[in-house]
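[step 3/7] inverse_fold.run input=structure_tokens len=340
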């Protein structure tokens, strides 16, 4: 029997954010995220440092999530955790902790696919948000992934397009590094782009077939462009930062929207949802909204705190699986690579 109030603890530790959330029947009671500042000085996530930081953060983060939810750990009905994909050392921390805690409390354990969670974040119950009806297209854009997924049901998903090399978040972060900006550079490019001219510097769009993406060539052309300009004017980046950021962001958004248009046309689906860290980008949010009157789309953009890595999205998958009694056992292991 499903209890009237089902409390699920979600744990996320796939990359560089340690997060824990408590949900009651699909509503978020708490969602605590400890981001790891240590990676900034290295210009990217250092896996070994990430897993050490998860070790330090996991107990206080879970403790805080339970306190903020105003429950005690004995009230929990199940524990959901990110099984993968992600960094192995990071995943191991959340996986081992979830297994031990479920064993100690004698409650079910639920394995969650991180990429599915970015999509199912749209089903977190919020007063002012509606969830997409099926079928819909989900574009998951993050530091690790770039995918277009056809979602026929909560757990019936098909990847219909994905990157063949870098993820879109990497295109933002690696270009930002070339501009001398700290990691993660995506939010900073977004900030500087606000006051720049998006047509100042045309960057080439990759030619990749079907619904797939490629971003490594864009990063290389950004590098060559900056090196060439700096030969003539060493202060080129500082003097043109806003225009460079606006132009790069404009190119990336065009790449993403072009593929979405193609996917919508091919499948006949006009409900479009986005998820993943890059969907926090103000330009992509605006371009998507514009798609409502330009292409007749109905778009779904998650709340800011549910776009970047967070445990609330792990909790909602946990709840949906709990309703189906889809539990895992103590033999479950973390998986760096995992399909839907
Ligand atoms: O989903 P996420 O938190 O972690 C992964 O699973 O990768 O995504 C992080 C990525 C980073 O590449 C970061 O630069 C990017 O999301 N990001 C943004 C913005 N906010 C975060 N990229 C562009 N504009 C933003 N506003
Ligand atoms: Zn993610």
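[step 3/7] decode complete -> sequence:
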């Amino acid at each position: 029997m499903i209890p009237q109030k089902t409390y699920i603890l979600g744990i996320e530790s796939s990359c560089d954010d340690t997060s824990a959330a408590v949900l009651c029947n699909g509503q978020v009671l708490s969602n605590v995220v400890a981001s790891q500042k240590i990676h900034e000085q290295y210009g990217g996530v250092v896996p070994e440092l990430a897993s050490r930081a998860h070790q330090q953060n996991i107990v206080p983060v879970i403790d805080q999530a339970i306190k903020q939810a105003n429950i005690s750990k004995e009230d929990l009905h199940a524990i959901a955790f990110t099984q993968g994909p992600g960094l192995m050392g990071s995943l191991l921390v959340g996986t081992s902790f979830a297994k031990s805690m479920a064993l100690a409390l004698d409650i079910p354990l639920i394995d969650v696919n991180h990429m599915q969670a970015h999509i199912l974040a749209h089903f977190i119950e919020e007063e002012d948000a509606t969830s997409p009806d099926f079928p819909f297209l989900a574009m998951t854009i993050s530091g690790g992934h770039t995918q277009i997924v056809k979602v026929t049901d909560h757990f019936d998903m098909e990847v219909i397009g994905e990157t063949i090399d870098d993820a879109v978040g990497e295109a933002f972060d690696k270009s930002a590094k070339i501009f001398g900006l700290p990691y993660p550079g995506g939010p900073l490019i977004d900030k500087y782009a606000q006051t720049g001219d998006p047509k100042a510097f045309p960057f080439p769009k990759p030619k990749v077939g079907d619904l797939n993406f490629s971003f490594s060539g864009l990063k290389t052309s950004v590098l060559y462009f900056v090196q060439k300009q700096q030969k003539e004017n060493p202060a080129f980046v500082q003097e043109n930062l806003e225009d460079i950021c606006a132009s790069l962001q404009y190119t990336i958004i065009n790449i993403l929207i072009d593929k979405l248009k193609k996917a919508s046309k091919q499948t006949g689906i006009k409900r479009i949802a986005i998820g993943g860290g890059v969907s926090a980008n103000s330009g992509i949010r605006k371009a998507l909204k514009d798609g409502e009157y330009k292409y007749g789309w109905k778009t779904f953009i998650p709340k800011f705190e549910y776009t970047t890595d967070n445990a609330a999205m792990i909790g909602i998958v946990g709840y949906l699986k709990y309703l189906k009694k889809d539990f895992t056992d103590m033999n479950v292991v973390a998986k760096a690579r995992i399909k839907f």
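[step 4/7] annotate
The chain has two domains: 7-124+307-323, 136-302.
The mean pLDDT is 95.
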